[in-house]
Every structure is written in C-alpha cells, then in structure tokens.
Specification:
GO terms for molecular function: metallodipeptidase activity. By secondary structure, the chain is α/β, with parallel strands linked by helices. The protein contains 12 helices and 9 strands.
Length: about 325
Amino acid sequence: MAWIDLHIDSLRRAVEPGVDLLAGSARAQADLPRLRAAGARGAIWAACDDVYLEGPESLAFVLRMLAAGRDLVERAGGELLLVRSRADWERCRAGGPVGMILAVEGAHSLLGCVEGLAALHALGVRVLTLTWNQANPFASGCGATPGEDRGLTPLGAELLVRARELGLWIDLAHASPRTLADAMALLPPPILVSHAGCAALRPHRRNLTDDQLRALAAAGGLVGITIYPPFLVAEGGATVATVAAHVAHAARVAGPGAVAMGTDLDGITLLPTDVRGLEGLDRLRGALAAAGLAEEEIEGVMWRNAARAIAAALPEG
C-alpha cells in the first residue's frame, strides 16, 4: 500500500511535552512509524492557530509548530525530508524518505502582512490555507453567513499574486463559497481543497457541493476527503465505509482523478468507529472497492492523484 495525505495536523502534537513523533506516540493519530507502515510518500503537515490568538501570539504559535517540524526532519536521520521543490518531492514519490510539506493553515496568522509570505517561504512553507473558519484580512471563511460572505478582498488578491511568485500552493479548504469561487478564478491549476467532504451526502459548511466539485475538476483541481465523522454523517458514528461513500460520490461528480485523501488526523477529536489512527486506514482500500472503485482509481485516490498534483504545484529545483 502507498499513501499520501493532503492534510495532517500532527505538528500540534510535536510541540506537546513528552510526544515523540519519530518514535511513535499513543497521543498522536499519525507519526513517523505509522506513516512508514502505511507506505506514505509524504503528507502536508499543517501549522494552525485554530484558537485565534490575539496579534503576534498567533504568528508565534504557528512559528513554534513550523520549528518543531524542521526539528523532526533534522533528528529523523534521513527518514523525513523537508520538501521544498519538485526535485525533493520526486525523491519521496519514488519511495525514499517520507516527505514533509509544511503548510500554514489560515492566513490570519500573517496579521494582514502580505510581505510575511516570503518569510514563511524561507522557512520551507510550501502550502498556505487561505482561511480558517473565520474571516481574515484576505478573505471570508466558511463560517460566514451568506450576507457576511465578502469573498476575496483586494488584499487577498494581492496575497494570491505574491504566493504564485514565491511558488506557494494555496489551499481553499475552509473557504466560504464566494472566496472559493473568487480564488479559483485567479489561481492556476492544480487548485487544492485539502480536506473536506461532499455536501450532497452531508450538508455542512465545510463540505463541497456538486457544483463546486465540478468547478474544481474543471479547474484541474483536487479535493482531499476527510475522515472526520461530523463532516461525513449528521449523527451517529462514521466508518471507513462512510469515508468511502464520500470518496465515491466525489469521484462520480468530479471524476476519479480529482479525488485524494486529506484526513485531518491530529486536528480532529473524533475518528470513524473502526479507525484508531492512520494505521486503521488500511481498511480503506477494501471499502473503496466495495463502493465501486476500480483498482486503478483506488490507487489514484490513495496516492497517485496527490503525487501528481504536488509535483505540478511545487517549484522546480
């Protein structure tokens, strides 16, 4: 089995005392031993201030997680690679070290400073999630009501231009409907929505409608399907079969080449009932087959689609 995850929040565990993601930790849902066991080529590791700290504390919190990620790479003895370029990624995609693609989840931590992107880029960040749930100076998040949804602001458009210049991949997970549409009109392919579900199966502000899925596919985009139960079912427990149902629906609507996995591991407090962490997702292959996906499509969802999109999004070098 091979695996690529478009969104994990394990850097929040890396800053906790007593947690060692290199040795493995029961307090984490994903760590290096489990990534290795899953055949992971790599993952997008997000640093996120999801408690919305005030002012500079927000950026400091994110920087602490980014530093923890870089420290993991330095201590991993070659088992982890900080992916900065397409050349780095090709080493990981070929089955070398597990790739760590650093991300900042929520541009609110930039405190309205477009120039801060260059500093994040210098630290190795290659993915920026434009919003978290709330609005920030750049765009509206998915928490906006229809009357509050202002979409992308002029400063946000400037941010996207600068991100393209630097080679940063913009992630539109958590975006409001108007922000998603505005940003997709400005961004080059591949468009990324790293972790979401299907609104047709579970109406939720974090999920994509069928129209959005079609627009994403038309723009050369990719959606990572989450495993977080509240995004998959209205009530009760989700299972890997529930996850597979969302994958299958997205594949029918957007095409199987537009679907990947973005679990949100270590950013979620609930898991499917038959999953304890990354190690439980070995059941997903069978669930996807039972949902009607062909073997080639399953390989695409589990890693090939993400591998292709990551290679296209990263700068050469």
